[in-house]
Design goal:
Blueprint (H helix, E strand, L loop, with lengths): L1 E7 L1 E6 L6 H7 L3 E2 L10 E8 L15 E7 L2 E6 L2 E6 L3 E8 L4 E8 L5 H14 L9 E2 L2 E6 L2 E6 L6 H10 L3 E6 L2 E5 L2 E5 L5 E4 H6 L7 E2 L7 E4 L13 E2 L2 E7 L7 E4 L2 H12 L6 H5 L1 H20 L2 E7 L7 H6 L15
Parallel strand pairs: 1-3, 2-4, 4-9, 12-20, 20-22
Antiparallel strand pairs: 1-2, 5-6, 6-7, 7-8, 8-9, 10-14, 11-12, 11-13, 14-15, 15-19, 16-18, 17-18, 21-22
Length: 350
């Protein structure tokens, strides 16, 4: 199997002699070509993955002198040594991974639940691998939230698990908004501004959300994941993805179940929003080994910080208190939020 996915300006090549993930990759991802928008960026990343129990398994050895990166790679503790990252996890989702940033190559063997289904391999291996600390080396960063837009307005929906980001996204889709990403939209920087890009995977909804929005049933792909969420392809239900980069105009933290008779919108201190974003998204390579090879690692960390800072600096920030009785009102509430502006005591440093 040889499969290429174009993540806007990053070409991601996936190859295997023992696994056929292509049908699920085609269902759960789609390419988007933004190389004309970013002509100076043409990076390429390769993933070579094989079954650990087959004759094509790759020879992957942990580096002799390795330093814990204080991070994980696909659910496994990650170490760095000899210019390579190494991660191993020998539980139900068995893997061993080697990432060489200089060669722009990931080599991996997988076993256990990854072999039960091509869907599992894509959802639990390829997707977390992309959304780990690797993408910032290539000018992309996945953030936890949902991004949707309509006309000149682009809203980043934030909040903890269960806050209703996917349900709110489904309501906005029903009202004609365009989806950029649910759960892990991608971001990049251009001229100091954070731009939201399509995640290019799918909408993630619970059974309860499917009951609220039965029109999404036609787009369901495969079975529920470990969070009991279903993948829904918006293209199958006539919604589709927004393909062009969009600057975020509003950051809205959702507080589900916190409203009384009416939904309430409360301005947020953007410094607190920035702190929350960095707490979730920031990767800092702190051990001394990274100081000796500082340029690439420092740029990766600075890139993440600059995206979070620019995103919060250029957008208005609010907290929305609501419950499911108010879902039909959300599109109008979000469409009427005041435009970006800095309130006193609410400055995010440039």
């Amino acid at each position: 199997m040889d499969f290429s996915l174009l993540l806007h300006f990053l070409r991601f090549d996936i190859r295997s002699r023992s696994l056929d993930l292509e049908p699920w990759l085609r269902q759960l991802y789609r390419s988007n070509d933004l190389r004309a928008e970013f002509p100076e960026r043409r990076p390429r990343l390769e993933l070579w993955v094989e079954r650990a129990d087959g004759p094509q398994a790759l020879a992957i050895a942990a580096p002799g002198q390795a330093t814990f990166t204080e991070s994980v790679l696909c659910y496994g503790r990650c170490y760095y040594g000899d210019g390579r990252f190494h991660s191993a996890h020998h539980g139900g989702y068995w893997h061993e991974i080697e990432y060489d940033p200089r060669a722009h190559r990931i080599r991996a063997n997988v076993a256990g639940a990854y072999l039960d289904s091509g869907q599992f391999a894509v959802v639990y291996f390829v997707r977390p691998l992309l959304n780990s600390f690797i993408l910032p080396f290539y000018g992309l960063k996945a953030l936890h939230g949902a991004v949707l837009g309509r006309a000149e307005r682009t809203v980043f929906l934030a909040g903890s698990g269960g806050a209703g980001k996917s349900t709110a996204a489904a309501q906005l889709l029903r009202a004609g908004w365009d989806l950029l990403g649910d759960d892990a939209p991608l971001f990049t920087l251009r001229d100091g501004r954070a731009l939201a890009l399509a995640s290019l995977d799918y909408l993630h909804v619970t059974r309860a959300t499917l009951r609220l929005y039965p029109e999404l049933e036609a787009g369901v792909i495969g079975v529920a994941d470990h969070k009991d969420k279903f993948a829904v392809d918006p293209d199958r239900v006539g919604r589709g993805f927004a393909r062009a980069p969009r600057p975020v105009t509003h950051v809205v933290r959702l507080r589900r179940g916190a409203a009384a008779a009416r939904p309430a919108v409360v301005p947020l201190d953007r410094r607190a929003v920035l702190r929350d974003l960095l707490g979730e998204a920031m990767t800092v390579f702190r051990p001394a080994v990274f100081h000796r090879e500082a340029d690439g690692f420092r740029r990766s960390s600075e890139f993440i910080f600059d995206i979070a800072r620019a995103l919060v600096r250029d957008a208005s920030a609010y907290e929305l208190h609501y419950d499911d009785r108010h879902l039909a009102e959300l599109p109008e509430i979000l469409a009427r939020l005041p435009a970006a502006g800095t309130a006193p005591g609410d400055t995010v440093a440039s």
